[in-house]
Amino acid sequence: MSSSPPDRRPMGRPVAPLLQAAPLALVLLLFFVFPLLATAVVSLWNYTEYSLVPDVTSRNYVEMFEGCSNLGEGLCTTFRTYLSTLRLCAMVWAFTTLFGFAISYFLAFHIRSDTMRMALFLVCTAPFLTSNVIRMISWLPLLGREGVVNQFLVASGLVDQPQDWLLFSDFSVVLAFVHLYTLFVTVPVFNSMMRIDRRLLEAAQDAGASGWQTLWHVVIPLTKPGLVIGSIFVIVLVMGDFVTIGVMGGQQIASIGKIIQVQMSYLQFPAAAAQAVVLLGLVLLVIAVMTKLIDIRREL
Amino acid sequence: MDEDRRPLTFWLLGAFFALFVAFLYGPTLTILVLSFQGPEGGLTFPLRGLSTHWYQTLWAGAGVIDIWASFRRSLRLGVVVMVLTTVISLLAGYAFRRRFFGQGLLFNLTIASLIVPSIVVSLGIALEFRLLDDAVKAFAEENGVEWLSEGYATAMGLFTSGLGAHLTWTLPFGLLIMFAVFNRFPNDLEEAARDLGASPWQVFRHVVLPLVAPSLVGVALFGFTLSWDEIARTSQSIGDANTLPLELQGLTSTVTTPEIYALGTVVTGVSVLVIALAFVGVSIAKRRAAKRVLG
What we know:
The complex is a heterodimer. Helix content of chain A is about 70%, strand content about 0%. Chain A is mostly helical. Chain A has a single domain, classed as MetI-like (MetI-like fold, Orthogonal Bundle). A two-stranded antiparallel sheet of chain A has the order 1-2. In chain A, helix 12 (about 255-265) runs antiparallel to helix 13. Chain B has a domain at about 65-255: MetI-like fold (Orthogonal Bundle). Helices cover about 75% and strands about 0% of the residues of chain B. Chain B has twelve helices and no strands. Chain B is globular and about 75 Å long. Classes of the chains: A mainly alpha, B mainly alpha. Chains A and B meet through helix 1, helix 3, helix 4, helix 5 and helix 6 of A and helix 1, helix 3, helix 4, helix 5 and helix 7 of B. Chain B: Keywords: Cell membrane, Membrane, Transmembrane, Transmembrane helix, Transport. Chain B: This is ABC transporter permease. Chain B: Belongs to the binding-protein-dependent transport system permease family. CysTW subfamily. Chain B: It is found in: Cell membrane. Chain B: It is a multi-pass membrane protein.
């Protein structure tokens, strides 16, 4: 760095920033850009049981959507899997958004001391730095047939016998997702809320708005960027997931990520690559729509 | 808002907040308690006595595949990821304070690296290394390089593909933290140093670095803990030697004793220890920075 003095004058072309950014660019090129390109290329390759065959074929995409045009005989596996993943996505999104919003609102508008607010914010975010798998495992003694929840339900007479739907079900999967990912909504929404000029709320009140009206017409529109960023995080994390759905679903629930993982374990790399390309396309589509949402609102 | 009396929404949201915190921490505390199950105890309550039995079996390595090897692997990888994340994020964050060619593209790529589903990144890295392996083998055979064609298995490994996969996850967080730091950074101090004749390196070393040091502890914390717990991006790209979270994921379906709770508690303990160390580090760095500015 000392060997390349940065040039602050606008006419000069500074070299120092380029060199300083180079390591980041190199890592992303080697471990992000090239891998995505490799995925796109391999998705068009053929394969045998043992090796990749580099000739261009549409086989992987054709096989992926085999029988999908024939809706009369029910949905094909691919569509069914996508639908069930999207359904999980919608449920998780609804809960994380609601919870994340409520928590941020409490921290941003109801806590008066900055120190207290920071402390409570850290309490909410610290678990992010601990292991996801262990946080999933932690639910097992609570939700199992002999678990704490069932012991309580039976003892209190609410149910006659232990409930099976608590664990290795859609319920436990959604519960774990909400447990793990509410934070991804809380942080950006909290950030948006802290930037809201408090005088706007007072102005709304002075103009005679009720609490709900202030929330709906002032707070939510101003929090929209945070809500969109949080939603993108949650949707993308759930759509590509295979770990949480695997562990909490008892390896019984299908998901897009799971298909890719299984195909990889059978060394069907091109098929997995095709799945990945379609998944990536869907994710990008969702992101494009969601970012449009904020822009349109801004224009209105 | 009435300044003296708390509105009803405060109590409702406060109650919800408290419940949410219980929801966040309750399960982890449950396995903390259950990890001290007596030797006859099972995976759930009631506790049959209190003991460190399961920690002892864990320490002896009985029952579980060589868990300590993966523990050490994850620790080593975590430290390397931590150092690289801190250095690369600091440099890149510093670079972004000025204009440079490809700035917008690099920023978008970094955000994309955060957003693209982990399974896709993981698969991509696996494919990349597979293509690389095939190319190396083909090259070795064509040119008759014997030591290469016989000895070479794969370039995949903990500190190649595994390290790269982790960096694609930790660097976006590192860069975003550095953005937040440099956004609040006082430019006039740098200018003053420059006016006094400091070289760019001296400005960086004696003005910028001491001021951002506390935040670098935060970047390091993210670097280590995100790597220590990473699973989705590692899964396809690690090669043969699994990291600890991957072993743990495998254990969820095979282990039927509280040993897994003991292991989980130890792993969480490492995270908590690192977070605590980071807090100590930040306060030390802040104190030193304050002393430097005042003295």
